[in-house]
């Protein structure tokens, strides 16, 4: 069903047209209630959709860190500050909002800044069916104030490789670098948060 400004209200005439075509009356009323609600509060529905997208994006970042934990970072756990992935997701959505395809046209490179430089964790394409229009590079930062645990000192060099870190703690700060791909005014935007 398509919502338009010419949609009839829930009159008996409108419902009887659909019932004559063998549609279930309860289903029709639910559908019309839904579209009445959508037309009455369009901003609220946009907020719900944006919040859902933000949650999905935050979950993608969490999954990325989880996968990188064993393969790239060589640690048993990654401590992520509360709401960090949600803050990043909101910033990514804000940077994508002015793009022609929005978030669907984004290629996201995820890195971690360590003492010895940056380590690439993953490349995320939000929608592989869309030609990318911009790139975002997300750089997580390691918390330099974190003290190693006693367990790290006891296990270091005994049963784990010297490059193994037992726990990696992320800083609440991060960096986002935006690069437009198909624009005559292609530039780079760097956001420190």
From TrEMBL:
High-level lineage: Eukaryota, Metazoa, Chordata, Craniata, Vertebrata
Key word Cytoplasm present: yes
Family membership noted in the UniProt record: Belongs to the DDIT4 family.
Role of this protein: Inhibits cell growth by regulating the TOR signaling pathway upstream of the TSC1-TSC2 complex and downstream of AKT1.
Superkingdom as given in the UniProt entry: Eukaryota
The entry's keywords: Cytoplasm
Protein name as annotated: DNA damage-inducible transcript 4-like protein
Subcellular localization(s) per the UniProt record: Cytoplasm
One GO cellular component term: cytoplasm
Matching Pfam families: RTP801_C
PANTHER family, A to Z: DNA DAMAGE-INDUCIBLE TRANSCRIPT 4-LIKE PROTEIN, DNA-DAMAGE-INDUCIBLE TRANSCRIPT 4 PROTEIN DDIT4
GO biological process: one example: negative regulation of signal transduction
InterPro entries for this protein: RTP801-like, RTP801-like_C_sf
């Amino acid at each position: 069903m398509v919502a338009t400004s010419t949609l009839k209200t829930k009159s008996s005439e409108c419902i009887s047209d659909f019932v004559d075509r063998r549609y279930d009356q309860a289903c029709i009323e639910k559908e019309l209630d839904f579209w009445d609600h959508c037309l009455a509060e369009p901003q609220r529905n946009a907020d719900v959709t944006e919040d859902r997208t933000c949650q999905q994006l935050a979950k993608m970042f969490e999954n990325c860190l989880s996968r990188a934990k064993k393969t790239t970072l060589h640690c048993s756990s990654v401590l992520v500050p509360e709401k960090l992935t949600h803050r990043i997701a909101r910033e990514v959505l804000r940077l994508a909002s002015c793009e022609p395809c929005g978030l669907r046209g984004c290629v996201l490179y995820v890195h971690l800044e360590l003492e010895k430089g940056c380590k690439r964790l993953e490349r995320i394409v939000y929608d592989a069916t869309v030609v990318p229009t911009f790139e975002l590079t997300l750089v997580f930062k390691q918390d330099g104030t974190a003290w190693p645990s006693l367990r790290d000192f006891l296990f270091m060099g005994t049963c784990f490789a010297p490059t193994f870190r037992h726990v990696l703690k992320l800083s609440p700060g991060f960096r986002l670098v935006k690069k437009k791909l198909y624009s005559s005014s292609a530039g780079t935007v760097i956001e420190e948060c």
